[in-house]
Design brief:
Length: 127
């Protein structure tokens, strides 16, 4: 299974009955281990969680703290992926656990668009 197929599979696991935006993420550690995540909505939206934080939470709960990059794919449910980036909450979450040069790679239209965390959130709160 190639990266696009893996991302599509994870994205299809999303629970998104309210906004109908589905997102899948594959987090890669520096040792090469993969952790997946999909967005999970709730009716009140606040308690929902984004795909990126699901993947990170799975890794962190297994004592993985050395991250290399994350791939994301998302867009309207049952439609092709679009160019997306992590939300503001996810960006600040990533700052807590990643270096400024952490790579965020969006996959859409058979294209990989790479961002660095420091460029997506240049004036973040820091440790």
């Amino acid at each position: 299974m190639n990266l696009k197929q893996e991302l599509e599979k994870v994205r299809n696991n999303a629970y998104s009955p309210y906004y109908n935006i589905t997102v899948g993420a594959i987090l890669i550690t520096k040792s090469g281990k993969k952790y997946t995540g999909c967005n999970i909505e709730t009716i009140t939206q606040g308690p929902g969680i984004c795909a990126e934080r699901v993947a990170f939470s799975k890794a962190i709960s297994e004592k993985e703290l050395d991250f290399d990059r994350i791939y994301i794919m998302g867009g309207p449910k049952d439609k092709d992926a679009i160019n997306i980036t992590p939300c503001g909450v996810c960006r600040q979450f990533l700052v807590e656990f990643c270096e400024p040069d952490f790579k965020i790679i969006n996959y859409y239209d058979n294209t990989e668009k790479e961002y660095l965390l420091k460029d997506l959130l240049p004036e973040s709160f820091s440790k």
